[in-house]
Each structure stands twice: as C-alpha cells, then as structure tokens.
C-alpha cells in the first residue's frame, strides 16, 4: 500500500466517525453546519437538507465548487474538503442514509416534499490527524519538561 493510500484510509476511518462539519460554496464563503454521510467508495459526502435552504437554491442550476470543514478534537481530525456540490435525486442513496436524526427534520419522512439530497464529490482535502485531546495534553506537558516541540500529528493533502 502506498503512503497516499494509507493516508486516505486513515482519513476515511476518522471521517466516518464524525457526524458534522461546516458546508459552503467557494463563491460565497458562508459556511453552515451540516451533518454529512461519508461515502468512501464514491469519494463523496452526502447531505440531507431542505429544498428552501440557500445552498440548495445556489446549486439548483448545476454543481458548484464547495468546501466542507470538519473539526473533531476528540477524534483527532481536522480537515478542509474541497469538491463540487450538486443536488441529487438518488432515492436508493436516500434509503441507505435515512436515519432517526434525518427523520427528526422531516415530518413526512423520506416522502417529505421539502427534502433534498445533496452530494459533494471530493476533489481534494487538506488534513490534520492528531492523537486527540488527551494526546494533545500529553504532548504539551512533555514539551514543558523536555523543552522539545510537541508532536501534533500528521498534516497532509489528498487528491481524489
């Protein structure tokens, strides 16, 4: 396995444990909190949202460059994900993703007329992997005792 493949695996393993991030378009960098669903094989993130949102309206005419920022201190993942955000009518994917969290937002369930599925096809990512919050505290304490700089983990970029 190459370094790139190992880094990608570590990234996806951690991302799959994170529930949300901040999503927005590159042209209008207003980020909003969104729950994402990681699709490792499809190299994409999926979002279940409402048709009336600004993001849905902005990509109604076709996909646009977007970014999704993730910060999970306890899991040791910080990432900026770039790609193309577009609407999707993939009912099979919606069936696969549907859960109790999504159902809390839509009174009529998967049939709710306001429900919209979006897909972020990933192009690249800048990623920082750390040992998590306990490791951070250890590294800071160790640096105070030894005078050495703390080891904050890995930083790398991926192309998809």
TrEMBL record:
Domain General stress protein FMN-binding split barrel span(s) in chain numbering: 6-151
Pfam families found in the cross-reference section: Pyrid_ox_like
InterPro entries to which the protein is assigned, alphabetical: Split_barrel_FMN-bd (IPR012349), Stress-Dev_Protein (IPR052917), YdaG_split_barrel_FMN-bd (IPR038725)
Domain of life according to the entry: Bacteria
Protein name as it appears in the record: General stress protein 26
Organism for this UniProt entry: Paracoccus aminovorans
